[in-house]
Every structure is written in structure tokens, then in C-alpha cells.
Amino acid sequence: MIKRMILMPLAVGIFFGGVFGWKAWTAYQAGLMMSGMEMPPVTVSTTIATTETWSPVINSVGTLRASQGVDITAREAGMITDLEFVSGASVAAGDVLAQQCTPSAPMEQI
Fold first, then answer.
1. Distance from C-alpha of 37 to C-alpha of 47, rounded to nearest angstrom
2. Can you tell me the distance from the alpha carbon of 85 to that of 95, in angstroms, rounded to the nearest whole number?
3. What is the pTM of this model?
4. Edge-to-edge order in the sheet of strand 108-109
5. Per residue in 8-50, pLDDT tens?
6. CA 7 to chain centre
7. Are 75 and 102 in contact (CB under 8 A)?
């Protein structure tokens, strides 16, 4: 039993030593083979610089989102009769944005 306990780690050590030794030897041989090779020359391409007119517009597809926006809700139910702003325009606090016709107060401004 003691003999097996001594031989097993010794056999495993020899096995793994052989595997790692083989890998080290092949890496060393590959290094020797590649050390004799020269690097190929670097390819350099050139062209003559010319002046061109660039288009001021670039067509693309994407999604835009406003950095400052607001959701507007009415205090009373009714139909919007007139919008007092243009989409994308800046408005100040207190500006009338829409006119609403409600059953209780016709043409009341919001």
C-alpha cells in the first residue's frame, strides 16, 4: 500500500513533467525556426492629394429626442380648437399654447 502511495505521485509527476516538457521543447524549436526568418517589407501606398468640395448635408437615418420637452394635459375635457405654436418652436412660461372648447366654458384659454 505504501509502495503505491509513493509510486502514484511519482508517475503523475513524470507524466505531467513529460507533457509540459514536450510543450516547452516544441515552443523552443518553433522559436529557433522563426528566428532565422526575416520580416517581409512593409507595403506603403501613396496618392496625390487633391482638393474636393464636400457636401454640406449628410443623409442618414436615425432617431432624435428633445433634450428639453414637456407633456401637456388639460384640466377639463374638451376639444382643442386652435394651436398657438409651431412644432419645434421655443415658448416661454405663461404663453398660450392652445385654445380648448369645453362644454362648461366655450373657447376658454388654457
1. 32
2. 9
3. 0.32
4. 79-83, 98-101, 108-109
5. 999 999 999 999 999 999 999 998 888 888 888 899 999 999 9
6. 57
7. no
